[in-house]
Predict the structure.
Amino acid sequence: MPFIIYRIPQTTGFHLSLQLLSRLALQKKVIGVKMSGESTFEMQQYKTAGGEGLLVFNGPDEPFLAGRIISHNDHDSQVQLNKEIEETAAYYFSK
């Protein structure tokens, strides 16, 4: 099953170093990292350390989800969003 690292140091007190992230990114099942902070500089550092194939998400979940829903507020767009979600999940769960 694919795994996304959730980096939330303000709650856990743990800082994920760039060196550890680069080692974890070599694992086949690690597909990304979710960063809870707002630093675009750190996000770029994590993307570089994780390599081209690592997905990097940033920011709180609620605004992202709300933005996706708002931008897909008509029926056809909602159908397309559902299709994108299903295809993305199928892709990563097939690895």
Observations:
- The chain has one domain: 3-93.
